[in-house]
Design goal:
The structure holds 2 protein chains of 2 kinds.
Chain A (H helix, E strand, L loop, with lengths): L2 E9 L5 E6 L2 E3 L7 E4 L4 E4 L1 E6 L12 H10 L2 E6 L10 H14 L3 E4 L15 H6 L6 E2 L9 H10 L6 E4 L12 E2 L2 H6 L3 E2 L1 H18 L3 E3 L5 H13 L3 E5 L1 H5 L21 H13 L4 E2 L28 H9 L3 H16 L16 E11 L18 E11 L2 E5 L2 E2 L2
Parallel strand pairs in A: 1-4, 1-5, 6-7, 7-8, 9-10, 10-13, 11-12, 13-14, 14-15
Antiparallel strand pairs in A: 1-2, 2-3, 5-16, 16-17, 17-18, 18-19
Helix pairs in contact in A: 1-2, 4-6, 6-7
Chain B lengths: L12 H18 L13 E6 L4 H13 L3 E6 L11 H10 L4 E6 L4 H6 L5 E7 L5 H15 L6 E5 L6 H12 L3 E5 L9 H5 L4 E3 L2 H4 L5 E4 L15 H8 L3 H4 L7 E3 L12 H4 L6 H19 L5
Parallel strand pairs in B: 1-2, 1-3, 3-4, 5-6, 5-8, 6-7, 8-9
The chains are: A alpha/beta, B alpha/beta.
């Protein structure tokens, strides 16, 4: 087994120290055969964990595969990603989640933890075999119809109740479908000017309000995907104050970008939920710092060129995000390393039940970590992305921070800013 | 001169006035026996229509032909478009054929903006989704100016389904640029959110047609599709016309000089009664004639003609 000595590394911004990685764990001492890496000026974070990744395989391997998405994740500092269920076929059976899990193991660059669908075919009619997915080799704990909302309140109640048997969690894509028929962007001043059908904030807030009440009623765990509005933050704040077992995520793009970008009609800015207003962005940032929003999740959504190089209304929603997430969060939060580690590693690992991830970088812990050069600046070039798709909204933007190395159980997946395989 | 006309917001007051003045010169031509100018000889204008719109297409076609341009009509039906060709590929095809201007009608808002990124020629928006229809606003402004002598200071009510109306958006932008005061009237369900902030700070909103009519110089009635009923924007066609339709008694609440406009096609009996549509206040037929003049002016100026 390989061993590494990270010389002069700053763990979460602390004074420089040496960190030995031996046999997949952080060790007190390195042996003489250890490969020495000069890590002076670099900050070590526990390997990032993404609760919301679209890897597109099976079904849309032209947009992304488990392998290319894993590489993008490692380059972004991740050691684990949760793969969303809206593939083709849908990940609604033990067979499909095991396939994704196995592909992740074969790629070997991050731990790929499949998310199972809540309902058969994401159709919102009938529960998928949640128990079979939970007891499969993929060991599914998070279930989500992401892309679609589990809109039927009775079905949502049953799903929340049912997964209690195996400590599961329902991750809801909060979007009241009747309030967003034909919706193209945030409903407001800009949608009025552009003549694009609005996606009102209340369509998200109403579902979150309903779901926290349902979760409270049945005593289950609820996770809210990609929270995007100031009103949702208030609903979550109140629910948490009452002790409801709810957690929530925000995407990097909702922390940085606003609906004004739609004025170009360039669908690279089309995403679901849509980019909101500057005051929503402000509220989301505050909520993330406060902990009302628990984690940053990418909602990495690769799309083929032809699905974006078209009219706004015909384009598919979504943005790639794995390779830019940490730089965006750095630009938003600044170098608050412990906060970043909490929101991007410890808490998402805890929510997903990934016990080998999100642990402190202390002796005996699994050596899942990433090294960041906070002084570096990078101009985002879509052509340089490892993802198979190019739909980044940050093309030409200068972002702080460069991911220099990532280790998965002591083995480098990224060195010198390049993927090892 | 601007290169594209994608939105009425592309026009400042000076440019808009130049277009209206030029449209006046073009209109004078219509009275002649030979209604043709050699100005755009050898230039190619493509009418790229993804929606059926006979009146707008033939208006642009007449405008281009009176300026001696070569006109190619490219309609979505019976072309490669119906076989699933992308807008980009269609744009590259038109580019390769040397289109100097592309007039585009499209069901998706913003399609002209996308097209302008893929062709070198000028792009003229002939109606995109629920966004804009700037040449309609120009012909409406031209009609107002012809009838009432000015635009600055006019009080204009735009009545009906503002939410889905590209005509309304372009008119608000252009008319306020030219100094008119616009009031949007309709049921609250059909007035888009934050309209004043979105388009023009001076825009007013009213839900009560009767109360605004006595002050208006112009009332523009928008087409209301009865299908909106199914979507609960209003309870029934009958209730809609009772509250927001323009009939004889309502028309008589207008000042003596006020005019009634409609971009067509009308739903007689829904938003406007035959009595009003056929009255002397109605400019509906004039609007059609002025449409050709306004579009001639736009093509002439965009393609480098001098006023």
């Amino acid at each position: 087994m390989s061993s590494y000595l990270l010389r002069g590394v700053s763990v979460l911004g602390a004074a420089p120290t040496d960190l030995a990685l031996v046999d997949g764990h952080i060790s007190g001492t390195a042996d003489s055969s250890a490969e020495v890496i000069d890590a002076s000026g670099l900050v070590a974070l526990p390997g990032l964990v993404d609760l919301h990744t679209h890897l597109r395989e099976p079904g849309r391997e032209d947009a992304e595969t488990v392998e290319t998405g894993s590489r993008a994740a490692a380059l972004g500092g991740y050691t684990a990603v949760c793969a969303m269920a809206n593939t083709s076929p849908v990940a609604d059976t033990a067979g499909v989640v095991e396939q994704v899990w196995r592909l992740g193991r074969e790629a070997g660059m991050v731990d790929v933890q499949p998310i199972g669908a809540v309902t058969v075919g994401l159709a919102g009619k009938q529960l998928a075999e949640l128990g079979a997915m939970a007891t499969s080799a993929a060991h599914v704990r998070i279930f989500s119809d992401d892309g679609f909302c589990v809109a039927d309140p009775r079905l949502m109640r049953r799903a929340l109740e049912y997964v209690k048997a195996f400590d599961g969690i329902i991750a809801q894509h909060a979007e009241e479908p009747r309030l967003t028929e034909g919706a193209q962007m945030h409903e407001g001043e800009v949608s009025t000017r552009l003549g694009l059908t609005g996606w009102p904030a209340v369509a998200e807030e109403a579902i979150i309000a309903r779901d926290v009440l349902l979760a409270e009623h049945v005593g289950s765990r609820l996770h809210v995907c990609h929270v995007s509005t100031a009103g949702s933050v208030e609903v979550l704040r109140q629910a948490k104050a009452r002790g409801v077992r709810v957690t929530a995520e925000v995407t990097p793009h909702h922390l940085l970008l606003t609906d004004e970008l739609a004025a170009s009609y360039n669908p690279v800015y089309k995403v679901n939920p849509p980019l909101r207003t500057a005051s929503d962005v402000h509220a989301l940032r505050e909520a993330l710092v406060e902990g009302v929003i628990d984690v940053v999740a990418t909602d990495h959504a690769p799309h083929a060129v032809e699905d974006k190089e078209c009219e706004w209304a015909y384009a598919r929603p979504g943005m790639v995000g794995l390779e830019t997430a940490l730089p965006v969060v750095l630009s938003v939060l600044g170098e608050r390393w412990d906060l970043i580690a909490d929101r991007m590693s410890r808490t998402p690992a805890r929510i997903a039940g990934l016990t080998g991830h999100g642990t402190d970088l202390s002796v005996g812990s699994p050596a899942n970590l990433t090294l960041v050069d906070p002084s570096a600046r990078r101009v985002v070039d879509p052509a340089e992305l490892a993802s198979r798709s190019r739909n980044t909204p940050y093309a030409g933007t200068t972002l702080p921070g460069r991911i220099v190395a990532t280790f998965l159980r002591g083995v480098p997946t990224v060195l010198d800013g390049k993927a090892v395989k | 001169m601007i290169k594209h006309l994608r939105s009425a917001a592309d026009l400042d007051a000076a440019t808009a006035t130049l277009i209206l003045d030029t449209a006046g010169e073009m209109a004078a031509l219509a009275g002649r026996e030979v209604k043709k100018l050699p100005t755009l000889r050898g230039r190619t204008v493509v009418n790229l229509f993804y929606e059926d719109s006979t009146r707008t297409r033939i208006s642009f076609e007449a405008a281009a032909k009176r300026l001696s341009a070569d006109v190619i009509n490219f309609s979505a039906k019976g072309s490669s478009v119906s076989k699933g060709e992308s807008l980009k590929d269609t744009a590259l095809t038109l580019q390769a054929m040397g289109a100097d201007a592309v007039v585009i009608r499209h069901p998706a808002s913003g399609a002209p903006h996308r097209l302008a990124q893929w062709v070198d020629g000028s792009v003229v928006n002939a109606g995109d989704g629920t966004h804009e229809h700037p040449t309609q606003a120009l012909l409406d402004a031209y009609t107002m100016r012809s009838r009432l002598g000015r635009i600055d200071g006019l009080k204009v009510a735009i009545v009906g389904d503002v939410l889905h109306s590209r005509v309304a958006r372009s008119n608000v932008l252009l008319l306020t640029t030219l100094g008119a005061e616009v009031t949007l009237v309709g049921p609250p369900t059909l007035i888009p959110v934050d309209i004043a902030a979105a388009l023009s700070k001076t825009t007013k909103v009213s839900y009560d047609l009767d109360s605004v009519l006595p002050e208006m110089d112009v009332v523009m009635m928008l087409r209301v599709q009865t299908e909106r009923m199914q979507d609960s924007y209003f309870p029934s066609a009958r209730e809609y016309s009772r509250r927001y339709g323009l009939d004889g008694p309502r028309m008589r609440r207008l000042p003596e000089h006020a005019i009634v406009m409609h971009p067509g096609p009308m739903n007689r009996g829904m938003e406007i009664t035959p009595e009003v549509a056929d009255s002397s206040r109605s400019t509906i037929v004039e609007q059609v004639a002025n449409g050709v003049s306004a579009r001639m002016a736009v093509l002439y100026l965009l393609l480098g003609g001098k006023a």
